[in-house]
Design a protein that fits this description.
With 184 residues, this protein is an alpha+beta fold. The chain has helices at 2-22, 80-85, 155-164, 172-179; strands at 56-66, 69-74, 87-93, 101-102, 105-106, 113-121, 124-129, 133-142.
Length: 184
């Protein structure tokens, strides 16, 4: 009997110990925050690029097959503003040449027009050719608001601005340099 009482008492103490140890009390207060780490050093600023002109675009078309008659070239950069008030300057060369000849191309022997811009419409430049040839083209599209900060309201005003600045519109590289456009 004594053993049974002792065993019952031991089991009771064991269960009581388990019951007490399995209960959780309230959470204690948060500890103090740790120290912040040191900030890293700031990086260096990059160098500014060359200023360009958002209103002037150079479009390069390489290896265009031109045939006798009318040839339509899709030029998505030819916007409504350029069509209405701007200027399109065209230049061409045979692939591999390093010089650019302005349009129209005139025969040196008899002074006849061999290749010219016939029509300009929204998104399209139509060329009229008297020969079949593979050619490279570069077009400089000048909107009515140019790098001078002035708003021009006519194509003639753009030509006047170039003339006043002594820019030869026949010289592709001079036009690009004036407007700060990458010629390549």
């Amino acid at each position: 009997m004594k053993t049974m009482k002792f065993l019952t008492y031991a089991i009771f103490v064991l269960f009581l110990g388990l019951a007490i140890s399995s209960c959780e009390g309230p959470e204690g207060p948060a500890g103090s925050a740790g120290i912040n780490g040191t900030n890293g050093t700031n990086g260096t600023d990059g160098t500014d690029g060359t200023d360009g002109n958002a209103n002037v675009t150079s479009v390069i078309m390489l290896g265009e097959s031109i045939s006798i008659g009318y040839n339509n070239l899709a030029v998505s950069e030819l916007t409504q503003d350029i069509y209405d008030n701007g200027v399109v300057l065209g230049y061409t060369t045979v692939p591999g040449n390093s010089f650019w000849e302005n349009l129209p191309v005139i025969s040196p022997s008899d002074q006849t027009v061999m290749l010219e811009i016939d029509r300009i419409s929204l998104g399209t430049i139509t060329l009229l050719s008297t020969f079949d040839q593979i050619l490279d083209f570069r077009f400089v599209l000048i909107a009515s608001n140019t790098s001078s900060g002035r708003t021009t309201n006519s194509q003639q005003a753009i030509y006047n601005e170039l003339a006043t600045a002594n820019i030869d519109v026949n010289d592709y590289y001079a036009v690009c340099a004036y407007y700060g456009v990458n010629p390549e």
